[in-house]
Amino acid sequence: MKGIPISSYVVQLASRCNLNCSYCYVYNMGDQSWRTMPHFMSTEIVSLTASRIYEHCKIHDLDEIFVSFHGGEPLLYGTSRMRNLLVRFSQALKGIKTHWGLQTNGLLLDEEWIRLFAEYDLKVGISLDGPAKVNDRSRVDHQGAGTHSRVIGNLRHLQSAEGQRVFTGCLTVIDPDSDPLEVFRHLVALNSKVIDFLLPHANWENLPPSKCHDPYVMTPFADWLIPIFDEWFEHFSGKVEIRIFEEIMEHLAGGTGSLESLGIQPVSLIFVAPNGDIEAVDTLKSIPGQQVLGMNLVTHSFDDVQAHPKYVMRQMGANSLADSCRLCPILETCGGGYFPHRWSKANGFRNPSVYCSDLMKLILHIRARVRHQLHIASPEGPECCVNGENG
Predict the structure, then answer these.
(1) Among residues 101, 183, 280, 364, which one has the fewest Cβ atoms lying within 10 Å of its Cβ?
(2) Is 378 buried (19+), middle (13-18) or exposed (0-12) by CB count in 10 A?
(3) What is the pLDDT of residues 24-34, one digit of tens each?
(4) Domains along the chain with CATH numbers
């Protein structure tokens, strides 16, 4: 069996990071692969990556792709290297519409970077977990110092006309011990167009601390997200995009969504390491070794990747899930949860997410709120409601 063609590429420009976040899957979840990686992707691997992507697009008649630059910290790569990369990619991918993205911790952000992003219409997201007292509990440098004030200082570069054109918003890892509305309002005040709230990476062998007592019942992450949903739904929907909420609503209404962490649609994403290794999604480093495919751009094409079991598994929809997930009433929305969060030594990835109880509570809350709103908008009752049910 072969998976669908690859249309999304995560390109790791730098294997190291200038932060040492406590929840980081690179430094603090057992993965050691960064130690043997080159610090930066070389010019040769850049060119090979671009040519392999072009080859794959032409074989499969793909005329639109997504390329996202990650690390480590991608801005460690430097503006000169980055400009050279973008020139080489643009030349190699001529005729293919390429959407560029980059996720950064913001510590090295300056006007030169903003000008480069604007020149290539490269969208940039900032990783920030909320106000200083929240952010600086986890997002610290290698000396243990908090980073909030430095990131906020550099965000001024995104307030220019050019900056506003490329700034998408914030990626925020949920701290269930924080005040959710305080975090949300802080991020909104930064003119974030998009907020991505992420569940901390965990699995059945490495449970989230706040769920260790009874992971099947406890719902600290749903309890954190629900107040934000209620405030957003009442006052901010249409102004700020919160992707986890909008994706859940789209799935409930019968749509397909675009996040790889929800739904059962095929995931056509692959990761390219600085040495040219082709890997499964990088977040699998939270389970050391699970990202490895044993493939490199020198010896393998992206067509070869399509047949790899770890790629194919993410094309199989409900057939790749645990029995309990296939019988679940919210399967089409939840999709079993994010792939890395399902892992156990006993069953591999055929488990519900460690966040199953949180996802169930959050999704059912959103469904109830949307149904209620539909009935208010149409007092006699809509012809059909969320999830295709009447009344």
Answers:
(1) 364
(2) exposed
(3) 998 999 889 99
(4) 8-207+246-315 (3.20.20.70)
